[in-house]
Amino acid sequence: MDVRLTAEQEEIRRTLRELLVKRCGPQELRAAERTPAGYDPALWESLALRLGLPGLALPEAYGGVGCSMTELALACEESGRALAPSPLLSTTVLAAPLILALGTGAQRAALLPPLASGALTAALAVPGAGLATALGLAGDNRGDWAGGGRAGGVQARRADGSWRLYGQAEQVLDGHSAGLLVVAAHTGGFARSRTLLFLVRGDADGLVRVRQTALDATRPQARVELRDVEAELLGDDRADVPAALAAAGDAAAAVLAVEAVGAADRALERTVEHVGRREQFGRAIGSFQAVKHRLADVYVGVQSARSAAYYAAWATGTGGERVGALALAQALEALRTAASEGVQLHGGIGFTWEHDAHLYFKRASGDELLFGPVHRLRAHAADAARLFDGGEVTV
């Protein structure tokens, strides 16, 4: 593994950082959160048209740039630094890889070009609050999380030559605004019980989408209700959907890890800047040894998480071992520590909910709720690797 970034990768980081510094400061971020979509459409258009971000990791044959997940992860590191609200995660990291992996030739040709251009956004909808389990990050995704043949979850039935979906999905990232939903649903009853993925247009009859209040408003979420909604099967009914979800989950975890590292690095920078200005007893509080030690520990944690996240992104891009969940656990832990220390060391102003330091604290907490928690990510990875004499890890 060559740890040096190429000139192209450095250019991606530099260009994106310049854009986000100008267009996504704390005030712009809060204004974007209050919009119906939960993000600034003009910024998304710039990211798509100027930088080609939605299609960065998609093949050129489908209108993409043809880069690897490593380049996409580096781009997400910059969006993580700014906590930029956009449909990049839901569209490019979660939904598009599944369409690329499982879709028919016609489905890929019809959907991937508008996804790559940013003209179409997408969201992955899984039942309940089991996104981490569905992606194979915090549990076995071959279980009954999609419905299990009983009431609850999302059920798919074939009638009159078409598929119909019934049920509800919670915590769907950008589910209220996405033009396309990739829905995981259970079908087959008890005899041929299995989970399949379906495509649902955002304007489909019987589809009800309600934006939910989320701890981290930079990750807008929705409740999606499917009331006898017509859907199109993604690929065919012989596809190994759990395996495809697990592969997409590992890549998504690597990208999320790099993104969390970017947020943690910026949270640390902001704290260092503050303790260098804030004076107590006639000197900057950053000059006190106790403060230096605390920030040094945060710095070591961030750099260690960066190394793990970069390796996970590289391994994903080269088809190597799957270590995304472990890298994500380390990155989320580093972000939580950096955000918590930032709140503490900002003193009285840091404890006010409206202070910018809490934006990073909310991102750390929100990501753990969506993709963790950290101990479950590590426990499942240990169980999958059979580290404890082949026994299961109890959490």
> Could you give the count of β-strands?
9
Q: What does the overall shape look like?
A: globular
Q: Which regions are unreliable across 5 or more consecutive residues at pLDDT < 50?
A: none
- Number of separate domains: 3
Number of helices: 13
CATH architecture of the largest domain: Up-down Bundle
Biggest sheet character:
7 strands, mixed
Helical amount: 40-55%
- CATH class of the largest domain equals Mainly Alpha
Strand content: 15-25%
Q: Fill in the CATH topology of the largest domain.
A: Butyryl-CoA Dehydrogenase, subunit A, domain 3
- In N-to-C order, the SSE pattern is HHHHHHEHEEEEEEHEEHHHHH
Cofactor: FAD
Domain Acyl-CoA dehydrogenase/oxidase N-terminal: 6-118
Family: Belongs to the acyl-CoA dehydrogenase family.
Protein name: Acyl-CoA dehydrogenase
Summarize this structure as a short list of keywords or feature phrases.
single chain; 395 residues; alpha+beta; Butyryl-Coa Dehydrogenase, subunit A, domain 1; Butyryl-CoA Dehydrogenase, subunit A, domain 2; Butyryl-CoA Dehydrogenase, subunit A, domain 3; 3 domains; seven-stranded mixed β-sheet; two-stranded antiparallel sheet; 13 helices; Acyl-CoA_Oxase/DH_mid-dom_sf; AcylCo_DH/oxidase_C
